[in-house]
Amino acid sequence: xxxxxLIGKTLKHSFSKNYFTEKYLNENIKDCQYxxxxxxxxxxxxxxxxxxxATLAGLNxxxxxxxxxxxxxxxxDDHAKSIQAVNTIKISKSGKLKGYNTDxxxxxxxxxxxxxxxxxxxxxxxxxGASKAIEKALEDLSIPxxxxxxTATEKCLSYDQLLAQPEIIxxxxxxxxxxxxxxxxxxxxxxxxxxxxxxxxxxxxxxVYNPEITAFMQEGLNRxxxxxxxxxxxxxxxxxxxxIWENEY
Length: 249
Known about the structure:
By secondary structure, the chain is an alpha/beta fold. It is built from nine helices and twelve strands. Helix 4 (103-111) packs across helix 5 and helix 4 (103-111) crosses helix 9.
């Protein structure tokens, strides 16, 4: 039996266990099991590995541990190193742990479903671990972007600045929410933006996938914008994780 799983702080609404359990059944993949491992602190990670060392073959990593887990790995893929976040770990037969970032692949493939204008500029809402892969994907797609956070810095606009200068929304037709705002059961949560500036030319991508239509996405729909939630990104990153786990290391 090969054991796979997800580590994070709160996992009761996780997509991963159901997805992989159904995958194993539908594709007749034998002797594989996927479990959820809630960790109150990343310091619990080594004992988790030790406890399941006989069967554990791979892990996914979710908030808030995508950066913190890197200190416990034997090797980090160059791509994940450049992003500075790991969401997939492959455990070799010899017990070596190697980190990867599949969020990048999931987001990039999902975003490319949209026909983006050559002059597209993006706003990335949030600066947490999830935003790192989004930055890298946009850079590789040659899409200029501006970070947005609660506090203005040299590299970040603040939400207050967007409210004071609503024309910034007009200048950035692609807006990507990387924060957990709006996640079930807090469905009403959304970034404080001048939503009246949205038009049918805008595209709103929300990394949240539950609910299917977030409050952020609904603001876009109300004004004719195209919207997408994080489900297709999750499927893309999950499949990339499986590809990594299945390859020799």
